[in-house]
Amino acid sequence: MADDQRSGEPPYRVIAAALRDRIEAGEFRPGDALPSITRLSQEYGVAKTTAQKALQVLKDEGLARGVQGWGTIVAERG
After folding, report:
1. Which of 13, 50, 52, 77 is 20 to 30 A from 40 via CA?
2. pTM of the prediction?
3. DSSP-assigned beta bridge partners for residue 71
4. Dihedral angle, C-alpha 8, 12, 14, 19, nearest 10 °
């Protein structure tokens, strides 16, 4: 994540932007599960709270929503 850190953005925003790009590119479609907090923390080498904050950004933007017992999924657009 060294290149991303040079941008000056907090890690959670970098992760949220990467996931947002993947959603907008159609890699993740409405109803698809996003990577788990554990997976994101391992993939990006960050604390789980940082990964959780990244997913919260997407929820706040209306791009994702939490589903009890399932995780975070891409929200329906409309």
Report:
1. 77
2. 0.89
3. 67
4. -170
